[in-house]
Structures are given as structure tokens and as C-alpha cells.
Amino acid sequence: ETGKVGYVTADKLNVRQAANTTSSVIGALTEGKAVTILSVTNNMGKINYNNGIGYVSMSYISYNQPSKPQPPVETGKVGYVTADSLNVRQAANTTSSVIGAVTQGKAVTILSVTNNMGKINYNNGIGYVSMSYISYDKPSTSQPQTQYKYVVTADSLNVRNQPSTAGTIVGKVSNGQEVQYVKTVDNGWMQIKYNNKDAYVSSAYVEKVSANSSNTGNGGNNTGSANYANLKGKTIVLDAGHGGKDSGAVGNKLYEKDITLDMVKRVKSKLESNGANVILTRGDDTFITLSGRTSISNNSNAQIFVSIHINSADSTSGRGVETYYHNHSDSGLRNKSNALATSILNELLTASSMPNRGVHDANFQVIKYNHKPSTLLELGFISNPSDASIMADSNYRNKAAEAITRGISKYFN
Fold it and tell me: In Gene Ontology terms, what is one molecular function of this protein (predicted)?
């Protein structure tokens, strides 16, 4: 459609010199701005701009005029958070800056509601939350506690009298055998009860799984997480790429924003089961600005930041896994980011047969302006049928989440 008025849906939409997304940026339009689309070529709209001509991506133009804000509805009722982590925003819209988060089950007083955004008291000030994740029904306090068991994953694992390879071997346990866990000790060792006595095994070859799962060692369908003692007490920011109005890459009936959200939830579960503290930049299908994501990381006490994405290309032949870090001027931050990207890539390559595309330095905003050691992961190509088929599989996603967890653990070694 040409000659029609369209409205910008992105926070900031680049205006380019030519009708392609690699052309020079000559300016920008803000959300809600009305522009006349003179013509469209390759999904790039031609517009009048600053007494000349410019081009914008039609992916962020809507011909539907934005609705006028609804008047606030006063409530004063107490609501309860239903999402794992619900972003608190500076203003009453889902594109406003994130100033914090409230966790599942948290009680908040909804002062008023405007456009499905609830106004709340937050940190001695005011914040706004999406009412899609607030329930006025108080959650039940009697939730069953998950029980776990510890199962050997090695073909044969030595049991020693000391938490060291110098310790005397007092026996062996085999693949799929359950051990009586006592506690995790330093340097990757686990204390167990063996023949009614204290003994030690390498925690790298023991997996913590739900007591209800049917685990058969390496040959089974276990989806639990191995035990990584060095993650205990670490704080990690996980960033699910895209979200909300920004679908990210789309291909083979898959949406990048859906895969990345599912992956961070899986990784979060595995990290937390090993004692880590996890901060999500988004825990639901919400649009978060790039600056909002880095702000969450920079304002936290996290040790690292991991952003999960899915790749795409014009050609369907491109495939494989790769990771990125930023070439910071601070050599310490640069080296740590490189080490993190390398450690996770090495483990991801064990989760599937996808090609290794390597570790690269890049200027992605979420890692360029991050004050923490950080990496951006590309788990495969959504545009490639083979990669897409692998990424659609729940078993692969769990393997990839385990690999990311293992890579993070090895980074901290």
C-alpha cells in the first residue's frame, strides 16, 4: 500500500539513505510518529524526511492509528504476581524503561490501572506493572516441595575416602546407580554415604534429578541438571532476546522470541537448582529495550551476563552455533567476556551436530555497554530447516540448557 499514512511502532525507527537495512542511517523517528509511505520496495518504505527522501523498515510501521490512552481506573486492591519475574517500569506502557522486578507470589497494591498497566508503590516511589501477570486471588501457601535424588552418569565412578584423586579408592558405583547425597564440598567433590560411611565422588559425574523421574544414566531420558558446586551463591543475568512486539527472527514456523524465552527459563531452572541466583531481563513475552537490558545488568550485583539469541540468514544454507563478546578497552573485562563466550560455545557443541561457527567480537549493544563479563549466544539458524528442526525439539533445548549451565560453571573454575 502506498500514499497512506503509517505510524511508527518501535521506540526508535532508523531512517536510512537507501531502501535496504545496511544503508547509512540519516535520522530516526519515535514511536507513534505519523509518516506518509510514498512507496514500498523490499519491505522498505519511502518517506519524505528533512526536505528530502528517506527509507524505513515496514516491519515497524502500522497503518492502524494508535489508540488514545484510556482513563485510569482506581482500584486500591491487593494483587499477586503470577509470572516468575515481573518487570516494574517507569511509565504506564510496556516500552518504558525497566526500573526493577517483583517475583512470583509477591503482593502489591494496585493504585490504579491505565491501558492494562497497574500503578504500584515501588522503592519509595511509583512503578508500573503489566496486569496480565497480576491476579487478585491469593496464591495457595501449601505448595509441594520438589524432592531430588542423585544418579551416577559415568560408566564407572570411583568412590574415595577423601575429596581428592589422591584419596584411597574404597569402592565403585556404576551408571544409573543412585547415591546417598550428604553435601557438596570444594573443588568439584560430593560427600556421600557409602556402606554407611562418609565417602567422596566427583560431582561432575553425578546428576541431580527429580525423585519422580525415571533415570537410567546416560542411556535414559533424564532432563535433570548435573551438580555444579561452584555455581552456589553466584548471581547471573539471563537475557532472552527480543520479545513482545519484537518477534526477532522468524522461520520454519518458529519465532526467535519464543525459543529464547523458553531457553532462559530452562537455564534458570538448572542454575537455581545448583544454588545460583538468576535475574531475568524478561520472564514473559514482553518488549524490553536494549538499553533497559543493559541497565538491569549494570545495576545488579551479577558476576556475568548471558544473552540468548537465534540466528537467521537470507540463504537457507547458513547454519551452526556461534558466540560473541565485545572487544572492551578494559583488558580484564574483554578477557573475561572472551573466556565466557568460549566456555559456553565449547559445551554447546556437545549438545548437537550443528557446525561450529566460532567465537567472535561484536558491537551488540547488550554486550558493548555491559559492565559485566558478557556474551551473546546464537544457538542456530531459524532460517535453516535442519537447525530449526533441532531447535524445535524439547530434548535438544534441555541439552543446550545443560550445556550453557556447564559452560558457565567451567568459566567460574
Answer: N-acetylmuramoyl-L-alanine amidase activity
Give every CB contact of residue 168 below 8 A, 6+ residues apart in sequence: 160, 161, 162
Torsion of CA 208, 214, 216, 217, to 10 degrees: -20
Its pTM stands at 0.50
Tell the CATH superfamily of the 4-62 domain. Answer: SH3 Domains (2.30.30.40)
Q: How far apart are alpha carbons 245 and 28 in whole angstroms?
A: 19
Superfamily of domain 148-226: SH3 Domains (2.30.30.40)
Q: Are 19 and 44 in contact (CB under 8 A)?
A: yes
Q: Convert the pLDDT of each residue in 380-412 to its tens digit.
A: 999 999 999 999 988 889 889 999 999 999 999
Active-site amino acid positions = 378
pLDDT tens, 315-345?
A: 888 899 999 999 999 999 999 999 999 999 9
